[in-house]
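The pair is quoted verbatim as follows:
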Amino acid sequence: MKHAAQPGSAPRPATVTDVARLAGVSTMTVSRVVNGEPTVKQEARAKVQAAVAALNYTPNPAARKLAGSRPILLGLLYSDTRAGYLSGFMLGLLGKISLRHVQLNAQYCDVGDDGTEAVAAMIANGIDGIILPPPFCESQALLDVIARSGTPAVTVSAGRPSPLCYGVSIDDYKAAYEMARHLLSLGHQRLGFIMGDSGHSSSERRLAGFRAAVAEAGLDAAHDVQTVQGRFTYHSGLDAAEHLLSGGQRPSAIFASNDDMAAATVAVAQRLGLYVPSDLTVVGFDDAPLATTIWPELTTVRQPVGDMASTAVDMLVRHIRASRNGVNLPFSQQMMDYTLIRRQSDAAPKHRPPVRLGIVA
C-alpha cells in the first residue's frame, strides 16, 4: 500500500488507520494487537500483524524514529569458501543488505564445526537475526540454541525446513527427478549418481528423486545404476568420478548432486581420454558460477541461490521490524522455483540402447 505524498516530499509514515484499512479491521483492534492484548481473535491478529509488517508501521513518532535509525544486525555462518554455492549466495546477500539498512556479521567456521559457539557469541552480542546456509541449516543443535534465545533465524536450502525458524528452499526431490528424466529421455540407461554430504537432507532428497525416476523407467538398480558417496566438494567429486569411470561397465551419464562435483567429473573424464558429452554426459545441480566457467559448460538445475539469499534477508528484516513494533510474526517457509538449464555437457549416448517401457522421452 502506498501513501500519498506531495511532489518532492517523502511518503508519510503509516498510521493506525492505514493498518486497519489494509487488515480490514477497526482501529481499536489494531491498537489491541499492537499493545499485546490477548482478547483479539487469532484470525484478526494475524491480519493486523501482516499489515503492520507490510506498512512498516510504528505506534508513535519517537519509536518510529528509533526503529528507522537503528540498523538491523544479521549474523551469517559459512564454511567451505571454495564451494560454488557460496559465491552465488554471498552475491545475493550483499546486494540485498545494502538496500535494507542491514549490517552483516559473517562468521567463518571450520568444516565439522556445528557453529553453536559462534552463534552463542553472536546472540550474546545482540545480533538481531541469523542466516543459516548449508551445512548449518541442518544442525539441530544449532537451531535449538537459536530457538531458546528467541532470536529469529532463516535456513536456506534445507531439504527438510525446521518449524523453529523461517526457511527458503526448492523442491530438491522434484528437481532431481526431472534431471534424471532428462537423461533417460536422451537414451541413457547406464547412469551414475554422485551423492552429496550424507548429513544434508537436500542430498537425501536429490538421491530420492533420482531413484524414483530410474525406478519409474524400469531400470535395474543393481546393473544399470551406480551411486557413489560425495561430500559436495570438488575433491570428493574427483574420488567419486574415478570410482565410476574406472570400472569395466562405466555409465554413459553421470548426475552429480552439485556443480562442484560435476566439474570434477568432467576433469576426471578428460584425464581418462573421454570426451564430454560425446563419450560421457555429465550434469550437475545449483547452476553455480563454476557451471559456466569450465568447458563444456554444465547442464544443471538452476537453484536461484542469489534470490534465496535475498529472500532470507527480507524475511528476517520483516520479522525484526515487526518485533520492534511489538508484533510477533509467525515463522513461514517459502518454496522457490528451479529451472533445468541445458548447456553443452549432455548428449545422447554414442550407442543408444533400445528404449524400455516406462521411459518418457
